[in-house]
Amino acid sequence: DSGVTQTPKHLITATGQRVTLRCSPRSGDLSVYWYQQSLDQGLQFLIQYYNGEERAKGNILERFSAQQFPDLHSELNLSSLELGDSALYFCASSVALAPHYEQYFGPGTRLTVT
Amino acid sequence: GQQVMQIPQYQHVQEGEDFTTYCNSSTTLSNIQWYKQRPGGHPVFLIQLVKSGEVKKQKRLTFQFGEAKKNSSLHITATQTTDVGTYFCAGNSGAGSYQLTFGKGTKLSVIP
């Protein structure tokens, strides 16, 4: 158990819909990262927040947005869903901002868009 | 942007054989991390390499960082069925970048 929690574990929804994925980092961790894992694409970095502020952006679509709240939990919002958005979405946390700290991954949310 | 390539994509070995996965970056890295993801699980941090030419060992696993800090390798001696999973390298280019760029991973299957 990494100490990072993600809900829900599974999500099935239809194209065009909007969903929210939630992540609670390890106690004391200030950085939260979101990744998308598709079968043939490995782990794609989406976005990073540190202590409530966006600090790095990867290949995140405009239909996707995220935020980190004062209690440090984070939410990833996916809208106008397409079939290709079906993937495993991981949240990870680390103690600080710099990239040389290990990241602790949550169990993931499996999103299926039908 | 920074690219991290990993080879091979898949590797099947007999139990007891050795296994190596290679990671190559298009840019010089400030650090590289290795993660393991078991089937159905989430990535778990294994190790970080920072120095040029660094070699670190964890039991049967040996990690190397190239002299130019653009490549890395993970070698497993005498594989066991518990080594099954996907091994990812992830690098950071430094220069104010906060993100890790992950390779696509090498999926290891061990035949008992």
Give a concise summary.
The complex is a heterodimer of chains A (114) and B (112). Chain A is mainly β. Chain A is 0% helix and 53% strand.
* Largest interface chains and counts: A-B, 27 and 23 residues
- Overall geometry of chain B: globular
Report the biggest beta sheet of chain A as strand number plus sense, adding barrel if it closes: 7 strands, mixed
Radius of gyration of chain B, taken over Cα atoms and rounded to an integer in Å:
14 Å
- Count of alpha and pi helical runs of chain B: 0
Number of strands of chain B: 11
Q: List low-pLDDT spans of chain A.
A: none
- Calculate the terminal CA-CA distance of chain A, rounded to whole Å: 31 Å
- Taking pLDDT < 50 over at least 5 consecutive residues as the criterion, the unreliable ranges of chain B are none
The oligomeric state of the chains shown is: heterodimer
Mean pLDDT of chain A: 95
Tell me the total number of β-strands of chain A. Answer: 11
- Element-level helix/strand string of chain B: EEEEEEEEEEE
- The average pLDDT value of chain B, as a whole number, equals 95
* Beta-strand residue percentage of chain B: over 45%
Query: What does the radius of gyration of chain A come to?
Result: 13 Å
Helical amount of chain B: under 10%
Largest sheet of chain B: 6 strands, mixed
> Structural class from helices and strands of chain B?
mainly beta
Description:
The complex is a heterodimer of chains A (114) and B (112). Helix content of chain A is 0%, strand content 53%. Chain A has no helices and 11 strands. Chain A is globular and about 35 Å long. The mean pLDDT of chain A is 95. By secondary structure, chain B is mostly beta strands. Chain B is built from no helices and 11 strands. In chain B, strands 2, 4, 5, 9, 10 and 11 form a 6-stranded mixed beta sheet that branches. Chain B has a 5-stranded antiparallel beta sheet with strand order 1-3-8-7-6, with no helix packed on it. Chain B is globular. Classes of the chains: A mainly beta (114), B mainly beta (112).
